[in-house]
Design a protein that fits this description.
Length: about 260
């Protein structure tokens, strides 16, 4: 009888973990570049009763993985917003020199002219930190699909328009094992070395996605699926609770028989 109680308790614990993950996914439905989490279950050790008979002892949390499907890309019209359509991540670096990966392209320009994340980490380009310094003669600029930041200057002395000049090029990084990337908060991923970084380079090359300027990638959380999982989790929790109450009732009957 204690086996059923232990199995049911393990089921309650797993369903609680699953509920926590679902709650976190739903709370980040509007988080730029967020990647939904998913729980993975595994059966616990089985007790061997005989050569052909085993009884399981419940379920355990095998791990929580992230899903890396593409989120919707929406135009924003904001000059420093960008999204990756396809594979890859932006690379950002903090003041201590630590590098992180992110799909959130809601960047801004700091007071020194560097392209940074909302909390001040510098966006990395093929030649280091990205700086957008338009200068007094800069009239317009744009970011191309390959990550090149092109500046269009005013007319030359002869009145003819000058050819656009590159200010830098944003780079994108792929990883061979996305499952080893770990969320570190702030829409960023760490553990990059363990995830097997592949050759970094320009967007749109070597399997890397292209850049969409003045756009942002939304969370890849499927709200309908999350609500479905929520209902299934609730029912599973109720079922495990019923096992506990039923086991308790049978134990009470055994105690009454002894009396």
């Amino acid at each position: 009888m204690l086996k059923s109680l232990n199995s049911a308790v393990s089921g309650l614990q797993y369903q609680q973990n699953r509920l926590d993950v679902i709650g976190n996914n739903i709370s980040n439905i509007n988080t730029v570049g967020y990647r939904a989490g998913r729980t993975n279950a595994a059966d616990s050790f089985s007790q061997v009763l005989s050569e052909r008979s085993q009884i399981g002892t419940g379920v355990k949390l095998a791990g929580v993985t992230n899903t890396f499907s593409q989120g919707l890309i929406n135009g924003t019209g904001q000059p420093y917003d960008m999204a990756i359509e396809g594979n890859g991540f932006f690379l950002v670096k903090n003041s201590a020199g630590e590098t992180f990966a992110t799909r959130a392209g809601d960047f801004r320009l700091d007071k020194t002219g560097f392209l940074v994340t909302q909390d001040g980490m510098k966006v990395q380009g093929l030649d280091g930190d990205i700086s957008i310094n338009l200068g007094v003669d800069g009239v317009s600029w744009q970011i191309q699909e390959d990550g090149k930041i092109m500046l269009s200057r005013g007319p030359a002395a002869d009145g003819k328009p000058q050819d656009p000049k590159p200010l830098g090029q944003i780079k994108v990084q792929n990883f061979s094992d996305l499952g080893l990337l770990s969320k570190v908060g702030g829409n960023r991923f760490g553990n990059l070395a363990a995830a097997g970084p592949e050759a970094e380079g320009a967007p749109g090359s070597a399997g890397r996605g292209v850049l969409r300027w003045q756009s942002l990638e939304s969370s890849n959380v499927d709200l309908a699926s999350q609500f479905t999982d929520l209902i299934v989790t609730q029912r599973a929790y109720q079922a495990n609770s019923k096992i506990i109450t039923t086991s308790d009732e049978i134990l009470q009957e055994l105690i009454n028989l002894k009396r």
